[in-house]
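New to this. Explain these tokens.
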Amino acid sequence: ADGTVSFGGITFTKPGTYNYVLSEVDGGKPGVDYDTTGYNVTAKAEDQGDGTLKVTWEMPQAIDGGVTFNNTYTAANTGITFEAAKVLDGRELKDGEFTFELRENGKVIDTATNDADGTVAFEKVEYTEPGAHDYEIAEVKGDDSTITYDDTVFTVHVNVVDNTQTGSLDASDWSYGENGAPVFHNTYTMPAEPPAPEEPKPEVIPATGDAAAATVMATAGIGTALAAAGYVTSKKRGE
């Protein structure tokens, strides 16, 4: 557990110089980057003349009689694509009509709009290390007076863990909050029709000033003409 590696003994049966390379075998464990360094080791077996061999070891790269293999473990990233749904009552939903926010710790980390079928999909959130995350999904209220906007805030909790068996992070442990899956319901209300305009009344202009005088003169003229016509008629009858 402390990382120490010990080999069994090697038996030499005759004098000589023996060269070895000490290296680590790539075990193929997911997420592990193996140290590929090779350390040279030399064993010299010398005949002592008494029926025994004396063996001396040399390892030029050794420090305090040993070497170290440095491996690195890095879990592969993972991620989640958060989605929501949009429902509009009263008329047909339009593509890109409504905007939504994805927030973490009160900070907006992404925005998205709805598709024509009501699907809302944010950009994938990437995770590079284990940890817990809490998110909020909310609709951005617009200024359309014919729309009643849904102000519900939906929450999502994600717990990211390191799966050493696969060598990757795992974000499969997630759950919605008390409001459940994010489905936003808006309502469209048709605006009231404006009242029909009143029919214009005919304009009566009273005779004043010169116009009135002209009217009087015209009337007088007609009377004079009529009188003259009567005089002429009488005269002819009297002749």
Remarks:
- Residues 212-239 have pLDDT under 50 and may be disordered.
- The longest helix spans residues 209-238.
- DSSP finds one helix and 16 strands in the chain.
- The CA atoms of residues 161 and 170 lie 5 Å apart.
